[in-house]
Amino acid sequence: MAMDLVPVWLVQGGWVIWILAVGSVVSIAAILYVFARHSAAKLALNSRRTEALLATVLGPEGNVARAPYEVLAAMASKLHRAGTPRQDILDELTILATEQLNDLRTGMRLLEVIAGAAPLMGLLGTVLGMIEAFKQLEMAGSQIDPSVLSGGIWQALLTTAAGLIVALPALIAWHHFDRGLENARIAMNALLARISNALRARERAGSAR
């Protein structure tokens, strides 16, 4: 009775289909996890937000923040108020920015592995299914039934289709998230340059007094 509740393709596909089914669940979970983290990080950076970040850097005290850009601004403010030289501030911010970007890549490596492994797993299932189909054909001897071969091939190709179905969403999601992080890296470099210019202007204004 329990087996009647399992889809027929999941039974006929063998253990490879079960592995791909688990991989699809893991892939969906990873996509949702990375999407939630990137959404919370607010990776889009516009001019208004940039000005607010610069005001934080040059303000009396830094704000406690979790979003990557705000974390950089808060650290810059803290170091600036402590009298840290500008170049040392930039060095610390560069290290912190790299750490922030690497942290946002959590979960993406799993998507990359699934996108690469799922088609190969599907191909493996197809090869194993073809071997089994020709084995059954050999055992039939002269009593060859074309339905035996065609049915075995159908089951074998099922794993290839399943592998591609699992891999495509993971691959598309990985490229989307990777592009978002690349844009964030460019935005962080621009923000660091703006912070450097703002600190240099503050130093010049202070020395001119």
UniProtKB/TrEMBL annotation:
Q: Could you tell me the membrane topology recorded for this protein?
A: Multi-pass membrane protein
* Swiss-Prot/TrEMBL GO biological process terms: protein import
Keywords of this protein's UniProt record, alphabetized? Cell membrane, Membrane, Protein transport, Transmembrane, Transmembrane helix, Transport
- Cellular compartments per GO CC: plasma membrane
TM stretches of this protein: 15-36, 110-131, 151-174
The protein's name: Outer membrane transport energization protein ExbB
Its chief place of residence is: membrane
Q: Which InterPro entries match?
A: ExbB/TolQ_transport (IPR050790), MotA_ExbB_proton_chnl (IPR002898)
Q: What is the lineage of its organism?
A: Bacteria, Pseudomonadati, Pseudomonadota, Alphaproteobacteria, Maricaulales
Location relative to the cell = Cell membrane; Membrane
- Pfam families the record matches: MotA_ExbB
Alphabetized PANTHER family for the sequence: BIOPOLYMER TRANSPORT PROTEIN EXBB, PROTEIN TOLQ
| Domain MotA/TolQ/ExbB proton channel residues, every copy | 75-184
Superkingdom per UniProt: Bacteria
- Family of the protein in this entry: Belongs to the exbB/tolQ family.
